Amino acid sequence: PDDTAYALPKKGSGTQEIATTMAFVRLLKDLLRSKDFGHRIVPIIPDEARTFGMDAYFPSAKIYNPNGQHYTSVDRELLLAYKESPQGQIVHVGINEAGALAAFTAAGTSYATHGEPLIPIYLFYSMFGFQRTGDAQWAAGDQMARGFIMGATAGRTTLTGEGLQHADGHSHLLAATNPATVSYDPAYGYEIAHIMRSGLERMYGGNHEDPNVMYYITLYNEPMVMPAEPENVDVDGIVRGIHRISVGEGEGPRAQLFASGVGLPWALEAQQLLKNDWGVIADVWSVTSWTELRRDGLAADEHNFLHPEEEPRTAYLTQKLQGAEGPVVAVSDFMHAVQDQIRPWVPQRFATLGADGFGFSDTRAAARRFFKIDGPSIVVRTLQSLAEDGVVDRSLAAQAIQKYSLHDVNAGTSGNAGGES
Question: Are 270 and 302 members of one domain?
């Protein structure tokens, strides 16, 4: 299919503030309209369609019910009221994660069991995925199911105020244990579009040696600046796991900041703070998949292990970092261990920041200060790494801790300070 089916942001059209969940829902709405394959898409909703804005699908795609709709819905006066039909596309199973995953497996294996390729797209709160139905997803992989698993309200700090129910800082680690799962943590709408395009081509294009996979893509309910797709964007990097989105300009000590998902704004904030307050020039990289970078590195290591007589193969991440100056600091809204997956293939000094431990029910900014993953925390860790390399004085890190009040968990400045959205 051509790009128009993917609602790719127009190049150079400016920016807007939007959550990646809404960016995905808009993209999916356009995919459903595709004349080529829109009728094969099976949206699966195990919980709250309106939370994700998926009620926009009700009037056109309709909810599947083999017996039609024989009740008067409580939302009948709304423009986007429930509409059930024997021809409906949406599988709306209620609060039933196990049933939704069963529907995903049935649709995802229909290409083999019925000779009818279907594209299940299962959207859920990320904590209700691999944590609650991980064994069922393993069974789906065993049955060679194909489709998209969209973990919304992802991350440890993005849905504050609900205790631990949505404090997901580990689903990417759980997903990494499933060999049939290809995991991504995108930050921008155009990244989601390219990842889904690649996934559709791999699973249904008929040209990939291993099409029997499921794509796990984490989404966020937190509005953030959503830039248009840049000219000459590194599509290969987006799909393989990393691309540089901002090159630091100026003279001074240099560093590399890695971030994924909702963590990218913190890295961009840190880039500005490092330059303005400490004279450090940093590049910012969007890591769309820590796990895929690790798998590529392991594949390179295995090739070198089995073919010592050949020219050593270099991991994709190592290739990307050739010529990149300074230490690397990696951050996300997930545990340190998610970022630590790529450590062996980073040739520079490598440090991680992550949200380990149970959730912290407060504002997003305070939670990020508590976990030390916000912009100022990235600055301090970068200064420490530069000091360890002998590039800056060790006293700078202590000065930065004092300047940004890092000892005060209520002094967070990064991110949306609101609660749920």
Answer: yes
